[in-house]
Predict the structure.
Amino acid sequence: QSALTQPASVSGSPGQSITISCTGTNSDVGNYDRVSWYQQHPGKAPKLMIYEVSQRPSGVSDRFSGSKSGNTASLTISGLQAEDEADYYCCSYGRGGSWVFGGGTTLTV
Amino acid sequence: EVQLVESGGALVQPGGSLRLSCVASGFTFTSYSMNWVRQAPGKGLEWISYIPTSGTRTWYPDSVKGRFTISRDNAKNSLYLQMNSVRVEDTAVYYCARDVNYSLDYWGQGARVTVSS
């Protein structure tokens, strides 16, 4: 399976909102509501931020939200804070029992 | 507190073998499917294996299929990754991660594997 497509980088100022897109195919993103998003700070393990397209795990700020339209999923971060600066990865369950990640997006605040 | 602790990372020569372990604590290990995910230096995340609670069937991407084997010992709360015929491109940090609702909700701190002669 090919990696999902994410922009390499996005940036925003404190307090602003940004959206990171994640484009797959009708074999993964478009066919399953099994999209998740992960935040990774340098040298740290990834942290789950969104699951099942738009669900937030307990403890994750409601400034993080997810959505999907067709083969493209999106992560929106509102009220940007300095601590949000990190790499973000989308992931989708795919046909045949596999998972595929996006290439990652570096967020600069 | 949920904890996943990997071990076994090392420097290994191309063509060699290595086994990674991941010990789970703080949750009922037998109730969760598990995954291995790796991250090459300066690169993104790559899913490399999945095992359900029973361990009766496993899944891999083409990049490691036939070379890597995921297994689990529910009595020991442990997950394993047997890596055979390793290649330079297998150099990465390897994470074990717990699977919930087709997402990975807890991750270990990672085990570093370097393949080099």
